[in-house]
Amino acid sequence: MSVGRLFWKFFFASWLAMLAAGAGVGTAVWWRHQALEQERRGQDMPRLDHRAGLFVGAAADVLQFGGEQALRRFLSQQAERKPAPPVYAVDREGTDILRRAVEPGLLSQARGWYGRQGDTDEVRKVSAPDGRELLLFAALPEFAWMDMRPGGMPPPPGREGPPPKRPSLWLPVISGTFASLFLSAALAWYFAKPIRGLRKAFADAAVGKLDTRVAEAMGNRHDELTDLGRDFDHMAAQLNSLISAQQRLLHDVSHELRSPLARMQAAIGLAQQQPHKIPQTLERIERESQRISDLVGELLVLSRLEAGVSGGIADTDLAGLLADIVEDVRFEAAQKQVGITYTGFDEAVVKTSAELLQRAVENVLRNAVQHCRPGGEVAVAADFDASGGCLRIGIEDQGAGVPEADLQAIFQPFFKGRNQQKPDSVGLGLSIAQRAVEALGGGIAARNRPGGGLRVDIELNLH
Fold this sequence. Notes:
Helices cover about 55% and strands about 15% of the residues. By secondary structure, it is of the alpha+beta class. The protein has three domains: about 55-145, Beta-Lactamase (2-Layer Sandwich); about 210-310, Helix Hairpins, CATH 1.10.287; about 310-460, Histidine kinase-like ATPase, C-terminal domain (Heat Shock Protein 90, 2-Layer Sandwich), CATH 3.30.565. It has a five-stranded mixed β-sheet with strand order 5-7-8-10-9, covered by helices on one side. A three-stranded antiparallel β-sheet has the order 1-3-2, sandwiched between helices. The longest helix has about 50 residues, at about 225-275. The two termini are about 30 Å apart.
């Protein structure tokens, strides 16, 4: 079974939903990772050592009593002692007297602490002999603040402020769920909209609104749902055409039956008023009843053909069957002073429905005889291509022909052209011929002859 376009839409939509959910989850995870990384960097940053007041105080005393040179030696020795905390002496410009690099965050912490607390054991501001103000403070030893990462000892409460708030572990799940819900809702709307349109169209058709169409309302979609919409439109158009044709046929049948019935009633009334004319009246009634019988018989044949009921398939001698049809109609044509010429072919036996073929050819031939001028001639020519199984039959008359605008309409039931009179016909012969030809898988067409009259061509593919 071939994979349809709807399958690929479902396939790409499911992948899109998964990608959207993955993007939502990935964004949430990245956000959480960034928060944790920021927290880690904040915790990895050197911090003030609030327990190093002794070292800061010693540095202040050394500066006061020994001067700046003595402070440099003390700070150098202090920096080499491990794990003693390093002590910094920073001037207003943020330069350490030992020219050491001071982390901006650490310096900011020290200045902020001094601004809030003033001189304390942790941070002190002293004046050098030359008048420079130095800010003294100590940093946590490296091993101490490296152990303060997640899982280690947190900083003393109130000293370093609250840690950054971590995103919830449920955030990725919620983000992926919402992304999936959004894509699922969009996908459901995309496929449910044409289905709702089809349901409404079926409901309208069920109550007789066969002019309902849905393909245009589906927009520029290209999938099986659009094909289904076009199939529905085709079905509705066909049903509308069939029902309209049946209504016209019913109207025409009632009209055709009303005329002979009216004449029969008139004949009966005349017989009652003039009993001496009863024999002529009975003949008139017999003719009208025969006309009604012929009409009913033709309607039954037309109904069987439209229902797809045809004769059985059997070996048929085409040449013999066509010759017999011509001979049967030739007797009727002689009474109308119309001659028939036939050009056929040698014997050819094929499997086909002899009943359908006979009805098609006989009805067309009788119609030609009825419309041929008295003293005229009907020409029948048949040719059979044995290699391709193609049978072609052409029937020409020498009548008045048919207006060009009516050439297609003459195959409709009860059609009466503007220039045609059919006193001896019920108006179903060509309709039955067309249905029989179509049942055999062929085609039938009519055209006017250049010299006057009508030509009907029948082409059948008989295998």
